[in-house]
Amino acid sequence: MTITGIEKRRKGMSALYIDGEYAMQLDTTTLLENRIKEGSILDDEQLHELIEASNLHRAKEKALYLITYRDHTKKELLTKIRRTCDEKSALEAAERMEEMGLVNDEEYAKRYARELVLTKKLSASAAEYKLMQKGIARDVARDIIEEICPEPKEQITALLETKFAGKFGDEKLLKRTVAALQRMGYRWGDIKSALNDCGTYEETEE
Questions:
Q1: CA dist 143 to 136, 139, 148, Å?
Q2: Which residues contact 157 (CB under 8 A, 6 or more apart)?
Q3: How buried is 205 (Cβ within 10 angstroms: 0-12 exposed, 13-18 middle, 19+ buried)?
Q4: How far apart are CA 30 and CA 37, in angstroms?
Q5: Three-state SS for 122?
Q6: Mean pLDDT of 35-64
Q7: Which own/partner contact pairs does 31-35 have at CB distance under 8 Å and 24+ positions apart?
Q8: What is the mean pLDDT of residues 165-186?
Q9: Which residue range is the domain that position 117 belongs to?
Q10: How confident is residue 108, by pLDDT bands cut at 50, 70 and 90?
């Protein structure tokens, strides 16, 4: 088969014409690197290799763009790359980013865990769940959380003294505060214990 035409298109792609007919769009950089031009002759195997090289190049470009925008776990990166290319290219690109140290799930997990626990004040279980949603392995998430997470009662008491200060003066406000703490992943037993220490729980019913 003979390449009879190459037309540049948007987003770094070029339209490829084979034997006088439009065939497909491939990555322009890949075509240049492989010295593909009008008049080039390819067999089926060479065309297949060219398509794979184009897909991989696009996948890597997408991965680098995403990483530049913000940090990603390998799972997040893979999920997003899959939207624009085939599974094989997406996986190879994600693994390449990991090999280069541009994707590091454990370091990501440590940073995100600190944000969840120390800044957003989520419970250990809620933080662990969010880490796992990002693709962090359960055992890794649990170990990291255990290293930084205060005791539940201590964390709840701190919240009652800061974020929820003055928001449990009557039964209605107290119920709202308890509901908010439960949404943050804290168990009723720990919440009740902290409220007792604050001399608050006895003012209302569970």
A1: 11, 6, 9
A2: 194, 197, 198
A3: exposed
A4: 11
A5: coil
A6: 88
A7: 31/6
A8: 83
A9: 105-148
A10: very high
